[in-house]
Amino acid sequence: MIFALTILAVWAIGWGLNIGLARADGISHRSKSIAIPIIFGLTLLLLWEVTVRGLEVSPVILPPPSLVMQTFAASLDILWVDFVQTVLKGAIRGLVIGIIAAFAFAIVIDRSEFLTRGLLPIGNFFAALPIVGVAPIMVNWFGFDWHSKAAVVVIMVFFPILVNTVQGLKASDAMQRDLMKTYAASYWQTLFKLRLPAAMPFIFNGLKVATTLALIGAIVAEYFGSPTRGMGFRISTGVGSLAIDLVWAEICVAALVGTGLFGLMTWGEKKITFWHPSQREK
Length: 282
Fold this sequence. Notes:
Helix content is 80%, strand content 0%. It is mainly α.
């Protein structure tokens, strides 16, 4: 009975705080958009803690958040080594290579109707390839270090960025392009002054998808071969040794990194595409 009342009380307090904050006057929309998700997240963590403690769930099945945080603080050296191996070496390098390659191919495809009709369907086909099938091949080709993980990331992020960029380059209408022709603008002048700015909302959609895929690709690829470090390696060995609290600590790092990368892309989108209706503040 006490356990059920505690659960209801935690949920009611979190719900009431968010409802009151949402209805409050004198608080900016930006502050509300930050505070409300934080309160909701803390409420879920508290419910998780209370549920695990109240039902006496084994830490091997589901550790409470407090234990995960203790393990996180005690394993900072391990988490940092894994972060460098997976994120900085594998995910970020693969993401940068994939972005550059996708932009270059998008420009080439844009200049040829034949390539537009021929490569995009093939791109959609490759984008549907399962990572569990691609990762072992890349490990076999490029070895166990970060190179194979970066290769997997390139494959995963290349086609979402390519398709969105090609579609975005068609966003400017015919009247705008005709106006550039009347000014005797070259292809490259039209591209940089008209078509790329108009394509930015599409490009950032692809980039936001790519940041999530990059981290997932690097972690999953480490399951199929890795040096004795990396987030995927640590999760795999942690599950095998029943160190589930360390596994959750690695998951926390992945969640923080993924949120940070997505937030960085969102911030860049707001700064660059401030003119777009979706970015105008109400």
